[in-house]
Task: inverse folding
C-alpha cells in the first residue's frame, strides 16, 4: 500500500457504497454488499458472539483498518441497542478523508439519519486523542502501521479488516497474528472476512483456536480465532 492511490466510490450489491482502488483492483468492503459483509463478519460473528458469553463493563475492541468508518459506526449502533459500553481503538495508516467518507451516506443507508452527527464525529475527531463519541462509546483512532502495534492483553475483540492477502500479504502473516494474539485478553476473539488456508495456518501457528464459519454474501467461509 502507498500514498496517492486513486480512490473511486462504487455501489455494492446491497445498495451501500464503498471505496474501490482501481490500481489494486481492491475495495474497502465486499462488492457483494458493504453493509451486509460488515454486519455478518464483525457484528454477528464477533460482537454478538462475545456478548453471548458475558456482559462486560466495557467491551474493548481493536479494529485493524478504520477505513470508511463503517465498522465503528455499526458497532456504535448495536452497542446502543443493548446498552453495552465500548472502548473502541481503530488503527489506520492511510486515513480516508471526511469528504470521501460522508459520500458513503451510511446513516441514510442504515435508516438512522438522526445519527449522522455520530458518524461525522467519528471521522472528524482528532487522531491519537481519545474522544467520547457518546457517554458509553469511547473512540481512539491511531495512525500507524500494523507492524507497529505493541498492545498487551488490552482487548476482548479484534476486527481484522485489512486489505486482502493478494494486495497486502505482509498483513496476514504469523508476525502480525502474534501481535494480535498478544493484544487480546484471555479467551479474546478475532474475526475476519478472510478464509484463506495460509491465513488460518498463520493464526494456528501463533496459538489461536480457529473456526471456519459461513461467510457473508459472495464468500463461502470466514474465520474466527480465539485466544487460548
Result:
Amino acid at each position: 500500500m502507498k500514498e496517492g492511490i486513486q480512490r473511486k466510490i462504487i455501489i455494492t450489491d446491497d445498495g451501500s457504497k464503498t471505496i474501490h482502488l482501481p490500481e489494486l483492483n481492491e475495495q474497502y468492503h465486499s462488492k457483494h454488499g458493504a453493509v451486509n459483509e460488515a454486519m455478518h463478519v464483525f457484528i454477528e460473528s464477533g460482537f454478538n458472539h462475545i456478548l453471548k458469553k458475558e456482559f462486560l463493563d466495557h467491551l474493548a475492541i481493536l479494529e485493524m483498518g478504520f477505513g470508511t468508518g463503517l465498522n465503528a459506526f455499526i458497532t456504535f449502533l448495536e452497542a446502543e441497542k443493548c446498552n453495552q459500553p465500548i472502548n473502541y481503538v481503530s488503527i489506520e495508516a492511510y486515513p480516508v478523508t471526511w469528504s470521501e467518507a460522508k459520500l458513503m451516506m451510511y446513516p441514510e443507508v442504515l435508516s438512522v439519519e438522526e445519527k449522522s452527527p455520530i458518524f461525522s464525529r467519528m471521522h472528524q475527531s482528532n487522531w491519537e486523542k481519545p474522544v467520547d463519541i457518546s457517554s458509553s462509546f469511547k473512540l481512539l483512532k491511531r495512525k500507524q502501521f500494523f507492524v507497529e502495534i505493541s498492545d498487551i492483553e488490552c482487548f476482548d475483540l479484534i476486527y481484522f479488516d485489512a486489505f486482502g492477502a493478494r494486495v497486502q500479504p505482509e498483513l496476514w502473516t504469523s508476525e502480525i497474528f502474534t501481535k494480535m494474539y498478544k493484544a487480546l485478553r484471555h479467551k479474546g476473539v478475532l474475526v475476519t472476512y478472510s478464509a484463506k488456508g495460509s491465513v488460518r495456518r498463520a493464526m494456528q501457528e501463533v496459538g489461536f483456536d480457529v473456526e471456519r464459519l459461513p461467510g457473508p454474501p459472495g464468500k463461502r467461509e470466514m474465520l474466527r480465532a480465539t485466544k487460548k
